[in-house]
Design brief:
The protein has a two-stranded antiparallel sheet. It is 71% helix and 8% strand. The protein is mostly helical and 198 residues long.
Length: 198
């Protein structure tokens, strides 16, 4: 009789253990699916922000009627894109996620985002540059996150360097007031001057 009671308890424990094991497995699977969905959402947001930054940079030159800025943006952004894809072809590095397209180095998403952000900062100042760099940093993060990232740290760092470097080659700070009138006097002399800033 006692043996029968122990067998019944052990059977109940085994069933409970099996139930807990199956429940844990199902919960882990659902958490993994949620994580993958979140990773996809983050990657998609990074894709959008990647294009939003250079679009905002170009649009700002048009809104401000900044003709010099339009030309500087075209040169810096064009250089960044050409250099990035030239390096991708020349280096032919495989991606960490196993893709063999040989287009990992440097990260194109990161280059485009940092090119737009650095143009905004360089041309129009840190007031607009700080949020722009924060958004570009988010894009860089999206390239590194997940179980199977598209890039490693070297790819992203090279994208940052190409994006910012190309901007600093061609972009100068924006000057709203191009004319400055000066006046000085001393010992019966008066000097009136006109400065024009390019």
């Amino acid at each position: 009789m006692r043996l029968k009671v122990l067998f019944t308890i052990n059977m109940k424990n085994k069933i409970l253990f099996l139930f807990l094991l199956i429940s844990s497995f199902c919960w882990a699977q659902s958490q993994e699916q949620n994580l993958r969905k979140n990773e996809e959402k983050i990657r998609s947001a990074g894709d959008v922000v990647q294009y939003a930054l250079p679009f905002a940079a170009g649009l700002s030159t048009i809104i401000l009627w900044d003709k010099a800025g339009v030309w500087q943006f075209a040169k810096s952004f064009g250089t960044a894109v050409v250099l990035t894809y030239g390096l991708k072809i020349a280096i032919d590095k495989p991606r960490p996620n196993g893709a063999i397209d040989g287009r990992a180095f440097p990260s194109g998403h990161t280059t485009v985002a940092f090119s737009g952000a650095s143009f905004i900062q360089r041309r129009y100042g840190w007031t607009y540059g700080v949020p722009s760099y924060a958004l570009a940093g988010f894009v860089a993060y999206t390239r590194l996150q997940g179980n199977e990232p598209s890039h490693d740290g070297w790819d992203v760092a090279a994208g940052v360097l190409v994006g910012i470097g190309s901007t600093y080659l061609f972009t100068t700070p924006y000057q709203r007031e191009h004319y400055e009138l000066t006046f000085s006097s001393g010992d019966e002399t008066y000097l009136l001057g006109l400065k024009y800033k390019f």
